[in-house]
Amino acid sequence: MGTKLNNAALDNLPEGVKGLAYDRAELRPGIIHIGLGNFHRAHQAWYLHRLFQQGQDLDWAIIGAGVRSYDEVQRLKMAPQDYLTTLIELDPSGTSAEIVGSMIDYIPVVEGHGPLIERMAQPDIRIVSMTVTEGGYYLSPSTKAFDPTHPDILQDVATPETPATAFGAILAALRLRRATGTGPFTIQSCDNLPGNGEIMRKVVVSLARLTDPEFADWVADNCSFPNSMVDCIVPATGNRELALVQEFGLDDAVPVTHENFRQWVLEDDFCAGRPAWEDVGATFTNNVHDYEAMKLRILNGGHQVIADPAEILGIETIAEAMQNPLIRGLFRKVTLEEMAPFLRAVPGMTPIEYVDLIEERFANPKIVDTVRRVAFDGSSRHTGALLPVIREAIDAGASIEGLALVQALWARMCEGTREDGSEIEPNDPVWDHLQSTALLAKDDPLKWLEMREIYGDLADNQTFSAAFERHLNMIWDHGVEAALERYLKT
After folding, report:
1. Model pLDDT, residue 105
2. Which of 343, 415, 345 is nearest to 378 (CA)?
């Protein structure tokens, strides 16, 4: 079974596994992170771990937290191994492993979130960060406005001291901190959203205003909400990853694999202090937007460009999809011709160079990133990463042929069957609605665009709707490959 990962094993790790240069007993908490999935442990937790390896900022250790039942499942897996994580880097030139020890506790997940609220209210917590996915911010898909009618939000308003959401728990803790004079903390989104700090501010302050406008003003004036861009491809953990960590001689219930690339770009807006992340490779800038737009559109949008046709064709991983010349061609043509022209260069990287970088990263054969994982929650990911590009291209009078084709591929995928007749399992929080609409769109393509909660007034644009209709008819009449071939010849 290998060496059981826990604190006792740190002095006797298997050969080839990089250990800790710091004593975890010296760590003190400074951050609570809500939503402790693989991405956080491969990205933000790793940056902090690197600081600790240098002997810096030992009072900024992480306490994990969550608000969903699966978060408690994760806690129960991690507790016996003292919240340590094995990170396995999947470099095409070789695989390596290291132990990350920057998380020192995990708050029990209970209804009403009393333990989480109490811990966030303590003065040593100076940052509350969050990864809850793009769809976890209670926003209207089409307008991106805060949705005060969602049942979770209504529960937070009705019972603010025992809320349902992470945002409600944050506000409950801030009320306690304000009452005791402890003061505010930074609320940091680490999700793939344009202007994620601004969105976090909107959600938190809007929720507060529903119950106490004066308190909402205090939150808006005193807490900080830095925008950031996060980037690292981190596959889900399954049997392959569990077997891989065993090959390193370790017994880890929740190992994490990741690519050999990371990027973190942040605004320096932290009301209660922060770690010196810039000393370990993070970039602080007032121009997060240009980095963010490039990454959200080319990487996150590019993932959707690839995943939907790959799912329809029964291709299992992103790397395998990139071996398909039609899918790879679709990615390059759409990103270079219809996305890159609306992006600005950032220091050291032009949009065209970034397309080349992402193409190389997607094709990494060591990364077993499933098409299913990447295609999950398309209703949030298409609206966040692709529809804004379509709007911008329409306003500029530029081509949207490829982007319309991508929307048609999404509609075809949501019908729920592959071209070989096998079933595509539900893969979106609103799958039933998407599937029923996709079935209608099979005979009447414009039914798909009538989902105003997703497309808004894009359905009224004749250029876009005509291109979408043409592409979806082509897909149903002649198949995905024929539709891709026709587009690549234009």
Report:
1. 98
2. 415
